[in-house]
């Protein structure tokens, strides 16, 4: 993992009006890694995710992807650089069928690899295959999350951003989804940047992790290190603040 | 067992009587002032009032009896049917479709192609005028407008209350350019479409950031602005007098439909002189334009831009995160919808031979939108059926002379067309909250197609 990281976030500051949500965040994601970002509610995790996608754009600092400055690009152009996102709240298209949802993800290549990639997604999430002609809005929460990840994968991303994939899901389903992410990373070498409140699961999964408090990264290290770290344990793993 | 069912029967009857009485009382209170009392000016120009107890009684009785029948007979009948269906375990979606149902579109198209000839055969040359023009052309214009608006509202989910503005742009483009420069219909038809599309983009730009209610208000204002410009720019548009003497459409430049012209169509074909042939020609033009609209809509839905429209309706943020440029997507939706409005407008001008701002009031936008909503947003078939029912219904009202025998000689049935609209809206929204055709045909398949019933999904938020 030598050389430049795939995604480099440098001193990024993001504002909502006058309110500073991120104050000088530095995060690196290397090719082939799973990196997670943990922290409490309102720490700015999702804001960082959205800033990488350019909505809102960072006021100061730089976001560099694949050697290219994408800080001031509009969201849809950032997405075309093959940064796929499974946004917070899943945001699938409720009135379109599962297959159509996946099709929307494959638009970047004008459906050239659609059939092939659909089979891959269906192999990973067999539930989606069963429900392929059902509308997105009729799926259960877990299935919607699978669809959201599947849709992001259809774009053949270099970097997959996952915002709270475990939100509101039963532990067993979370486990399944995390296993799928792990498998993607192992078998396809997909780089994943993950925002999670479920710190224990996220740290176990990740190669490296960052801890965020009040718009700043306060700690970083390998997943195992952070799992063992007493401060992290106290704050996020053993009861702590939530 | 029998005893129980008798009891149930009595219960239902008691309930029906009660609800009927309540409906009667409510109707009485509601209509007491509006229907029961009429104001008018007497000979001395004073405003005086008189009572109309008879008419009020009719309203109250209709409401009471209607409610009584609904609760007492229709509802138990429907419940029974539902129960029977549930027992047999047949889901509505898997029901075997009848021949008519399966081939509905083909049958409808064949019927439309034969329609003018059928009308002529049945009602004679002059008698068929009414059916070809008032029913056929009028309905098809609205079908086309509604299909055009469907692209903006039904597919892209952008609520446009000023759609009639594009219709006006199309109509005036043809009216003005043909009377000032003498261009032909076939040149100006595409030009009107392009001009309207241009205005669609002009409207699109400022409203890019708006959604839902805010968008609706701005588009509403846009429609009014266009109308007011047409009224006040008297040098060019002749204001409220309108533009008259607009040239007729020619048969692709080969034959003319002007009576005096040397290459008159009727003379060339040895037909008796009658305007019905021109109307028939117009009927086929608007039919072709409608087919074009439908074809483009169906094709676009399967193309990236059409899929992007539908995705935009569902979730804008998700769209952006998938690399869709929402700005161009919205603008193309506005432009495409507006273009079909422009086509319909220039056709309207050629057909009427006269345009004035009167034809492009907000009510027209509302009617077109109502047709789209009633038909089921996004469904071409549903919208066409809604247009036939709503526009055909209002035309039928004109024919209901016999109602004068019931309500007196002052009764003008066409004044009640909005009542009909309201009634249809309430009924459709009660029984089919997603419109006549609530199903949406999916565009992506791996093996077989399967329509997805609208009733299976929760209400959208688009």
TrEMBL record, chain A:
Keyword hit for ATP-binding: yes
Superkingdom, natural source: Bacteria
UniProt xrefs under CDD domains: ABC_TM1139_LivF_branched
Signal sequence extent: none
Gene Ontology molecular function: any one: branched-chain amino acid transmembrane transporter activity
InterPro entries listed in its UniProt record: AAA+_ATPase (IPR003593), ABC_branched_ATPase_LivF/BraG (IPR030660), ABC_transporter-like_ATP-bd (IPR003439), ABC_transporter-like_CS (IPR017871), BCAA_Transport_ATP-bd_LivF (IPR052156), P-loop_NTPase (IPR027417)
Protein's GO biological process: L-amino acid transport
Record's keyword terms, sorted: Amino-acid transport, ATP-binding, Nucleotide-binding, Transport
Domain ABC transporter per the UniProt entry, residue ranges: 7-239
Regions crossing the membrane: none
Record-stated family: Belongs to the ABC transporter superfamily.
PANTHER family cross-referenced by the UniProt entry: HIGH-AFFINITY BRANCHED-CHAIN AMINO ACID TRANSPORT ATP-BINDING PROTEIN LIVF
Descriptive protein name: ATP-binding cassette domain-containing protein
Native source species: Endobacterium cereale
Lineage of source species: Bacteria, Pseudomonadati, Pseudomonadota, Alphaproteobacteria, Hyphomicrobiales
From TrEMBL, chain B:
GO CC aspect terms: plasma membrane
MF-aspect GO terms: branched-chain amino acid transmembrane transporter activity
The keyword Transmembrane helix is annotated on this UniProt entry: yes
Pfam families attached to this UniProt entry: BPD_transp_2, DUF3382
Bilayer-crossing regions: 20-41, 53-74, 104-123, 135-158, 164-181, 188-208, 214-233, 277-298, 331-354, 366-394, 415-431
Electron transport keyword on record: no
Region forming the signal peptide: none
Residue span(s) of domain High-affinity branched-chain amino acid transport system permease LivHM N-terminal: 16-115
Annotated localization: Cell membrane
Membrane topology: Multi-pass membrane protein
InterPro entries per record: ABC_transp_permease (IPR001851), LivHM_N (IPR021807), LivM-like (IPR043428)
Record key words, sorted: Cell membrane, Membrane, Transmembrane, Transmembrane helix
PANTHER family in UniProt: HIGH-AFFINITY BRANCHED-CHAIN AMINO ACID TRANSPORT SYSTEM PERMEASE, HIGH-AFFINITY BRANCHED-CHAIN AMINO ACID TRANSPORT SYSTEM PERMEASE PROTEIN LIVM
Name used for this protein in its record: High-affinity branched-chain amino acid ABC transporter permease LivM
Protein's organism: Endobacterium cereale
